Amino acid sequence: MIYITGDKHGDIQEIEMFAKEHKTSKDDILILLGDAGFNYYRKKDRKTNLYHKIETEDVYQYLKKIDLTILVVQGNHEAPAWCCDDMHETFRFGNTLYQANDADNIYYLKNGEIYWFNGKSYLVLGGAFSVDRNWRHIPYTDEEDSCCGYYFPEEQMSDDQFKRAWESIKEANYSVYGVLSHTCPKPIVPLYAIDKILANDRMETKLEEIASQLHFDIWYFGHFHDNRIIQKKYAMTGQMTLFDLVEEEEKSQFEIRLPDVGEYTRENQLAFEKEVLGIYISGHPLDAYEAAWRKNISAVTPDFQPDEETGRSKVHDGARETIGGLITDKTVKYTRTNQMMAFVTVEDLLGTVEVVVFPRDYEKNRELLEVDQKVFIRGRVSEEDERPSKLICEKVIPFDRKKRELWIQFPDKADYLEQEQTLFGHLKDSDGEDEKEQGRRALLNFGHTVGHAMEGAWGLD
Fold this sequence. Notes:
By secondary structure, the protein is α/β, with parallel strands linked by helices. The protein has 10 helices and 22 strands.
């Protein structure tokens, strides 16, 4: 089995626990995508430019006891293997690489080279820029340590290594199965980590050039200490065993299948748009009701806005108007007599208007005066100088209780006169919102109260 993980920064105990938990052997491979931390505690000789171990206890003495073969991609917070004096070149996985002298299970992959694992080819592009390099120092042998951390000038791929990478890409006919790197192409850098490349984006820019010309199936990187798929072909790794390199036919066993929840309803989608963006994008909750809305109102919300020249609104103080729309906000207040009243914001297709609901009307209509309710509100205009006018609520009618029309045709006048009292008997229970025209044909604009009575007497279409 081959496992891939991100930075470990010398946490050997975690690697050891992982090996025990998964009962691995030296036939299993763990790939660390930079900053393994094994070569961090080093001193650089000014004459040879090589790094020497300075640890009292050698980390490799612990690593060689772990039942895993560990392959390391160059990071930016440790000395590169090609600069260390305790490494030697060997051949394995289809190419040359560095092996630790003191641990035969620890290898360092070369930048710009292609290696083969389980019959698949991987291009290695290690290294990155250290954003904290200004408070770190190069650990020379002739200098005392400070409280700061170490900085390794060879942290990024050299121009020669990038040249070798392009040679390898051409030799592979511009196609590999995967890429193993520490950082990633510039467009893939996650937004929360964009500051990591602001000071120096050389590596990310060069990787972007490679990504634009190289055909690959998957690109693994670990520099940003997270664990997720950035895009379909880019995997940011930060936890062991999540991205196992397994055969294609086995991959389905590791897929996470999400339930098919279907599309949002139209109203839910619009509600989410308003919640997240503050505006509707794909439409308006009242679109489906526009015809009925226009038929039952006498004023729209812009009519309540003051005119720029006169400072007065189109609707005038004391006039009775009917508006309709969606309740988007409601504030409840208590009067001096401890009665509840409300200030309601109604939004139509053109804007919003504030409606004042005094205690008596609030008590009668409180169930209808909830946010997201679609209502018609009839009331009296309260005009204010150079400020939007308000509507004082007198009646609230839900959208599904709007007026309907019924035509009743009598054969002749005698028949009408015979049934006139029956008709008036039904109308006497009217709530006052019904209108009628008498004659051989009667046109009734009726509301909810009269509707059921008429339906029983003459039927409704």
